[in-house]
Predict the structure.
Amino acid sequence: MDAETVAHVHDGAKRKQILDGARAVFLSDGFDGASTNDIARVAGVSKGTLYVYFDSKEQLFEALILQDRQQQAERVATIGEPENADEFLRDYGRRLSCVVMRPEMISQVRMVIAATGKFPRLGQVFYEAGPGHGLRTLGALLIKLKAKGQLEFDDAELAAQHFLDLSHAGLLKRLLFGVGETVSEADIGRRVDAAVDVFLRAYGTKASIAR
């Protein structure tokens, strides 16, 4: 590798090191309780080095939101076009719910909500990178199923929101309020199966019936 490439790789590794340290501190102390001193210490860098990469704690948290939500999107991404509405929705619903209900994701949502009153941009960034992106992505996939004659709706994002809300069916809210720390895959599966059944009764066509 040439010198420029080596420097780029080093910068990427150092940035990841800082983000990993910040994630640990934010999850432990919350947004308000986290300090740049603690983040630098846990990340194993000087405070001066931290500020080379991030101007403030808010910018660091925003970068962490974007990184985590990008990784989340990659974990639930569908390879290729959905062929069957019933099978696609059951698979998508399970994978998405298993990711968003992980303890660290719940902790992050709580932190964002707590910080949004003082820093509205953090809430906006979180929404666009997470729920907003998810709605647009699922809506685009539902449009493909509509084109195949398997779904019928007027508003793709509204249909996507209905499916996501049905899939969570109270589980996400329960976790956010600390009523239990985790939910089982079996419980998620039951919610998603019921969500698909209701969703297809509302939006499905005869061509969407797989079973």
In short: The chain is about 75% helix and 0% strand. The longest helix spans residues 3-33.
